[in-house]
Amino acid sequence: MPSTTVLLENIERTTQATLDALNAWDYDALASHHTDDWVFQRLPHSLNLPPLDNEQYRELWVNFLTPAFKNFKVRRRASQAINICPTKTRLALTSRRGN
Fold first, then answer.
1. In whole angstroms, what is the distance from residue 53 CA to residue 47 CA?
2. Is residue 73 within 8 Å of residue 98, measured between CB atoms?
3. Rounded to the nearest 10 degrees, how much is the dihedral formed by the CA atoms of 3, 31, 53, 68?
């Protein structure tokens, strides 16, 4: 098993690649980090919206997210950038309009 340092470096590299893909609005670059069983969980849970698989998320990305939010840039929230647990990694992100 890789050391904790190696794991954290891999998470950091993947996190930065994800942010770069989000800010370039490059779905293929973003999806290149998804596993076959990846799902997008929409929040808040109280809306009872089902999770989306890769193909469903691509449709959302192309038909809604890109046209609606292309002028927004995504960045990490410094106080809680990465939250790691045994089964998933969560990113705390913020966005703002413009550069």
1. 18
2. yes
3. 130
Q: Report the SS3 class of residue 75.
A: strand
Residue 44 CA to residue 34 CA, distance in Å, equals: 22
8-17, 41-50, 88-97: segment of lowest average pLDDT? 88-97
Looking at residue 82, what is its pLDDT? 59
According to DSSP, the residues that pair with 74 across neighbouring strands are 95
Please give the CATH number for the structural domain made up of 4-72.
3.10.450.50
Contacts 24+ apart (CB under 8 A), 42-49: none
Give the residue extent of every domain in the chain: 4-72
